[in-house]
Amino acid sequence: MTLGQSALTDVRQLPRGKTIAIIPVGSCEQHGPHLPYSTDALLADEFSRRAAEALGKEMPVIVLPLVNFGCSEEHMDFPFTMSLSVSTFSCLMGDLCRSLSRTGLRKIIIFNGHGGNTSALNAIIFELRRKTGAQVAVIDLWRLVEDAYSKIRDSKSKEIHAAEAETSLMMSLFNELVKTAVPEEDERTRAKTLRHFELEGSGLSAFSWFTSDVSKSGVIGDASKATAEKGAHLLDASMKQLCQKVREFAKAKP
């Protein structure tokens, strides 16, 4: 069930104490010359809707209207990237979860399609549990994708943004929105990316970076290796994982 397309008579039939709410969260930011600004949002919404449909006969699931904006500070050097501050984003997600809690829901999943939102979401879920009494989980799209992607990837580059995996999913699900001229990664960008992100690991939990530090095109990785077939494989594998995670969360006891 999707809340935005439901009437009051529809939602009143839901057993609130057993219903799982999914809040899809994306971003509105540049995704290079070949993908739309709404890429993260489109994928988050599509995965959430498919999960609700797949699990509909097992448990009551309701998908909230998509949160189109997120924390995109790393892309602000590119025009028309829309970014919320961490405090505004946290307040928005908190208000949505509190609204669901006041409705009587006790299980809330935030399904995140944008890596820039992850730190903020992970930081607020403990406070949300305390304030709402509801169990809140964050499921990250790219964590679901990474295992299946590691087995089929052709790119030798760092997969950071608008590259092989993300472009493949968009080709599979929203091919009409993908520009035909998918860019190849130039050697200069590849070398800068590898050098820049070699800081990762070895106890370093985070560091500040901007997309413009390494890429003029807005792409970090090699999008030219993307195919719709790879995207279909990633979709199938990731959806199975997502549905299983929702089942496990539904059974989890506080």
What keywords describe this structure?
about 250 residues, single chain, about 10% strand, alpha/beta, four-stranded parallel β-sheet, Rossmann fold, globular
Structure description:
This protein is of the alpha/beta class and 254 residues long. It has one domain (3-251): Creatininase (Rossmann fold). The protein is built from eight helices and four strands. It has helices spanning 8-11, 39-55, 86-103, 118-132, 141-152, 164-173, 187-196, 228-251; strands spanning 20-25, 61-63, 107-112, 135-140. Strands 2-1-3-4 form a four-stranded parallel beta sheet, with helices on both faces. The protein is globular and about 55 Å long. The model has no long low-confidence stretch (mean pLDDT 91).
